[in-house]
Amino acid sequence: MNHDDGISNKSNNRPFADVLNVHISRRKVLAGGLAMAASSFFAGSGLAFAAPPPWAGRPERGGPHAQGGPLMDFTPVPVAEGSGPWPSISPDYEFDVLIPWGEPLEPGGPAFSYPPTAADQAQQIGIGHDGMSYFPLRHGKFGRGGDDHGLLCINHEFGGNRHVLGKPAPTSLEDVRVSQHAHGVSVVEIKKIGAKWRQLRSHRARRIHVNTPVSFSGPVAGHGLLQTPNGNVPLGTVNNCANGETPWGTYLTCEENFNGYFGATNQQTTWVPSEAQARYGFSAGGFGYGWETFDRRFDLSDADYINEENRFGWIVEIDPMDATRTPVKRTALGRFKHEGIALTLGRGGRVVGYMGDDERFDYIYKFVSDDNWRAMRAQGQSPLDHGRLYVAKFHDDGSGEWLELSIDNPALAAKFADQAEVLTFARLAADIVGATPMDRPEWTTVAPNGDVYCTLTNNSRRDTATGPNPQAPNPDGHIIKWHDSDDHLGTTFQWEIFLIASDSHGTEDSYSDPDGLWADPDGRLFIQTDGGQKDGLNNQMLVADTATGELRRLLTGVSGDEITGIAVTPDRRTMFVNTQHPGNGDPSLTNFPAPFDGVTVPRDSTLVITRKDGGVIGS
What's the number of domains the chain is made of? Predict the structure, then answer.
């Protein structure tokens, strides 16, 4: 979802753009063109891919690259075929449609009807399909299987009123509940039956939405910043964008643009945003959902619900295998507009997570657990509750440093009372320590050799071409890459640009606004887009060879959608991706997944992608 209209960062921290400009002049990266520079850098890096993280499932490393052949051997979708009301896919691949918005989750659940009721929507697949993870249901003594049967945890980021309700604003609390229940997360059981994947209406399946009970853990749990005068219990998760998964088999869903669901009903007389509220983008009108009109929880001007907004903006852990466990908001990971979290294991088995804060001129963060994750869990501790949170600062010479956000820093102690305040207002803390403002940091992914990639989707407000974004404005975005010192535990890193989107325009590899991202075990980088594609294209998914910079277009979506979310089976023969907000809800643009008729409301859906020859996805 494009929220490129606002800027909450009013700090004077040196922007990434300025850093890149000096770095380019020193290192001559632009000699021969940015695309060639990226290609040359990676061709000479001698990548030696290690095994993927242990929770990624059983890797299949029998693709062409592992045998010395080409990394990508599929025919790309040409520009001329990348538009219209129906997806296009490489002729070497095929796709099926799975779990469209409104499908019932459990046996006997309510069938989709438009618009849904609040009670029905709470028992159905939500809207705004986004980040997701596949959790195999294994069988046998050694835990084999899962390539054809599993649970899909899928985020439901957002759905506009016109799409969900069929009108511009709610007119009752029932309307608000419909909208609220369309957001959140679904846990869905799916299985390959014959040659096709199917949803199983199952008692394993469930919804987590805006009115689901949740709990808090970590340094902010129990703090006054999470208490309201009303004393209402914490409920819900919202604007669930990208995701992560843990070594112990749980799902992490990330709350991004949570500020847009709050508003103020008496803003004309009493409500003025505090410094912290302004830094997180809260406003009287929000994004126009109108929840505050009928649900006091979301009314910033209601004195009984002071601090309710502090309960959002976190990463939430969900156990897909145990529906009795309450979702937990892990506060040690900080509060900001989380796009996602890419987890890896650092030296000694410590959990390390890389996170982007998706707003123009905001920051990139890293979390490192205090100890080996197995040892911590054996002691009854969550590795996500005990650790250090850092924010990135980029330097001109291609180096960078991770700045710890700790109350032990005198500059932070002068502003905040305790570590709970530092984490709750992580943006303000990052401003103070001097983090580098970035161009909408979104998805992160860690390659098996330890390289970390991050999409910087765009920044239309850039007015000076100085920094790692050498364009002003930067409407098309780019991808950066860095490598941490000390096996992810160090406080320094080396960075480079991987791809600049505008370099591709006018070519058969054209793309803009990179967003979703996944590095596979063989050296491929899957890139998904969200924004104004050039050359007549719909949003799309491309595959890049990280050693050469070669790009090929695997898939394009439908008019007005976003392509987002990546999950694979352990054998990597099946990939799940999403078409989000097809047609932006406008049936005159597309009726997907129904055949085009100009009338039927389009429904967010998951696409099940396979190679026709049964090979590894991307090969």
Answer: 1
